[in-house]
Amino acid sequence: MQTKMNYLIILLTTIFMVGCTNVEDVSTTEEKTDSQEVTGTDTNDNSAKEETTTTVDEEPVEEEPVAEETSTETNDDLFPGYELIEVDGGDLSGYREPNVVVDIGFGDREYWAFTNEYGQLIRVIADEIIVQDDSTEPVLSSGRYYSDEAKVPGVESDVLDEGHIIADSLGGVSNAYNITPQESTLNRHGDQAYMEDAIRKAGGVTNFEAIITYPDTETQIPSSYQYTYTLMGEEVVDTFDNVNPDEVNESLGLTDSEPSDSTSTSSDTSGDISSVDTNGNGQVTIKEAEDAGYSMPIMSDHWLYPYMRDNDNDGMVGE
């Protein structure tokens, strides 16, 4: 009996111990499972964050290229009220379009000529007048860029020249937007010729402006000219009428007596050029003529004239 009781106690003790062990195992297993679930959740969250970060890095925002600055200045801004057109520098037509502006500078020069509603040439401007360079430019033996000038109505007159507002020697072209019928003496020997010579000798000028006026709206023959420009730092204003200056001076009693030195205006048709042409090249320079005792200018009726170069073809050398 005692032995059975002992077996019963041992059996109960064994069952009790096995039950406790199972409970601990279950508890441990649940704790591990909970821990694993938490860890799994954190891992998923981190992965999501990493994926989000990676997505941002893989698709960076591209910088848009900086647009180049372009000029918004138009022809209307430069010349309001005028249409900018192109005309060949050697165009002989005497017709002008109304209310237009044309570049009358030879080569890269920018000389701007303006017409009014009647097609009259009324204004010419240039920031800088660049003197002709016959060593680099296609200049004819006459000293001109073109063999002839535009036939503006009026130039057919015996007393009017095809007068350049800006001479060939100063870089002007020969179309109708740079030509006006100008009194011959004024153009060749008067204020127009003096002004052009002064600009050539100065090597050019700046802030150039020519204003041309007319007696009415029908004619293309100007009544007067006004030139304003800066020469060697000084502003110069030349104003003169489109008339023969010799006749005006004579009417005013201002005509000088004939010069006593006839060598400068002599009409002799013969002479010994070898005494003047010191280098023997058949061409007489202004310096050679002056060294030989001849005063300037040499006119077209002087015997030396055929041996000298008249760059502006105005019948006068060394003016």
Automatic annotation (TrEMBL):
Residues 27-76, 244-283 are annotated as: Disordered. InterPro entries: DNA/RNA_non-sp_Endonuclease_sf, Endonuclea_NS_2. Keywords: Signal. Residues 56-76 have a biased composition (Acidic residues). Residues 1-23 form the signal peptide. Pfam families: Endonuclea_NS_2. Residues 160-229 form the Type VII secretion system protein EssD-like domain. Residues 255-278 have a biased composition (Low complexity). Gene3D superfamilies: Extracellular Endonuclease, subunit A. Residues 36-46 have a biased composition (Polar residues). This is Type VII secretion system protein EssD-like domain-containing protein.
